[in-house]
């Protein structure tokens, strides 16, 4: 039963993340940081958002191996399993919102969609981490950075997962900005909503992790 609960929590987390990504994308204020690179890559390549999400996450898994080096374990390659359903989850969420006619007619509505996306992604990430089963390579990358920083500088609130994720997300946004400027001629897919999410998602994760029951109690 414990494993079944973990699997359900993981799938729920990924479903919420996918819905949050689709919701923020629908705002046209820029998607969340975890999908800024996939979205820009999708606009450049013509591939679906789900497909480019898979490609970017495979790259982030490779970066984990470079950061952890000897501490990288073959079991971490299981993160790739998550991509089997996460990419399709995103494409399904984008399709569903489009079919439902989710959109906006005013700027404040764009921000409402953006904030909803931030909350959904943040809660989804927290559930994924709390399940202690598998994480997406993007969040595994943040965990690898957290481990490396705590190993180097010691345990500190500055290096808890939620805060490190803010830094990792911000870095992805900056790379997305450069790619958008070079290949698309402007801040396409990366706007003020993306910058808000770069900080907001990490704080939502930190808050939700604090209210979820301790994993030791499982």
Automatic annotation (TrEMBL):
Q: Which UniProt keywords apply?
A: Membrane, Transmembrane, Transmembrane helix
Question: What residue intervals traverse the membrane?
Answer: 42-63, 75-95, 107-127, 166-188, 194-212
Q: Which protein, by its recorded name, is this? A: Membrane protein YczE
Native organism: Corynebacterium guangdongense
Lineage, top ranks: Bacteria, Bacillati, Actinomycetota, Actinomycetes, Mycobacteriales
């Amino acid at each position: 039963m414990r494993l079944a609960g973990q699997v359900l929590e993981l799938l729920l987390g990924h479903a919420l993340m996918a819905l949050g990504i689709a919701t923020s994308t629908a705002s046209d204020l820029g998607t969340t940081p975890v999908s800024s690179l996939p979205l820009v890559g999708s606009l450049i390549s013509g591939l679906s958002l789900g497909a480019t999400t898979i490609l970017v996450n495979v790259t982030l898994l490779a970066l984990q191996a470079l950061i952890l080096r000897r501490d990288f374990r073959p079991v971490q390659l299981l993160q790739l399993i998550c991509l089997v359903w996460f990419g399709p989850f995103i494409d399904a969420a984008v399709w569903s919102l489009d079919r439902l006619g989710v959109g906006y007619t005013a700027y404040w509505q764009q921000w409402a969609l953006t904030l909803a996306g931030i909350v959904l992604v943040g809660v989804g990430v927290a559930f994924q981490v709390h399940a202690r089963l598998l994480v997406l390579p993007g969040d595994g990358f943040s965990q690898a950075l957290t481990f490396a920083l705590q190993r180097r500088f010691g345990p500190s609130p500055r290096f808890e997962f939620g805060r490190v994720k803010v830094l990792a997300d911000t870095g992805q946004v900056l790379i997305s900005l450069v790619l958008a400027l070079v290949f698309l001629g402007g801040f396409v897919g990366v706007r003020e909503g993306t910058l808000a999410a770069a900080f907001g998602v990490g704080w939502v994760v930190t808050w939700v992790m604090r209210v979820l029951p301790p994993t030791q109690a499982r």
